[in-house]
Backbone:
């Protein structure tokens, strides 16, 4: 059993204290649109690794690679703009703290900026992600435990205004990979209780603010 602190979109003031250590988590999972210094502090205070996907308000993290402790982009050394202690899972499958996590960041495109995709663009990214996850599963027999996204699936916890539509392709990703849980942000509850939803056997959880999950 892996105990995860899942966060997204809204800072929780109490997590910027040493009290966060008492949560006893094994990993910090971030679904986007949080200050990177906040995320780095969560990793530092919990002394645990983190994994993220970017939200539509985050900077562009694409193209960065780490090799022998050095970050590069387009073959040139450079600092990584993301939070210390975190692995970027956008369009990738990563193994962190005993979990296999597949990630798709960003929201539906509604203005110019990074981490925004049309439905067709995200569907292409989703197909590449599924192919990568299947290659790994053929190699070691392990499936995906968590699908980590910023926006939710369409008609599964999203909204009817354009910027808060979910992605239709996420239904296909869930059907193909059958993760135990899909974690997303982007949809602010504004004080309302947000029930978990299901796509088949996959639990869909809105983690805006923070959630503690046993995975």
Residues:
């Amino acid at each position: 059993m892996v105990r995860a602190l899942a966060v997204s979109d809204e800072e929780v003031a109490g997590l910027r204290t040493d009290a966060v250590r008492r949560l006893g988590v094994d990993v910090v999972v971030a679904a986007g649109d949080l200050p990177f210094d906040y995320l780095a502090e969560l990793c530092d205070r919990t002394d645990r690794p983190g994994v993220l996907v970017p939200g539509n308000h985050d900077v562009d993290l694409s193209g960065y690679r780490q090799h022998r402790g050095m970050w590069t982009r387009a073959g040139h050394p450079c600092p990584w703009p993301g939070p210390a202690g975190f692995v970027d899972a956008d369009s990738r499958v990563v193994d962190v703290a005993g979990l296999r996590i597949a990630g798709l960041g960003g929201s539906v495109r509604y203005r110019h900026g990074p981490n925004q995709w049309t439905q067709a663009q995200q569907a292409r990214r989703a197909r590449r992600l599924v192919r990568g996850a299947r290659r790994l599963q053929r190699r070691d027999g392990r499936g995906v435990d968590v699908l980590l996204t910023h926006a939710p699936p369409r008609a599964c916890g999203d909204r009817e205004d354009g910027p808060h539509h979910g992605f239709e392709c996420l239904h296909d990703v869930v059907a193909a990979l059958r993760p135990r849980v899909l974690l997303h942000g982007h949809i602010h509850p504004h004080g309302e209780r947000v029930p978990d939803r299901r796509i088949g056997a996959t639990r869909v959880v809105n983690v805006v603010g923070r959630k503690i999950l046993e995975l």
Summary: The chain has a mean pLDDT of 95. The first strand starts at residue 3 and ends at 8.
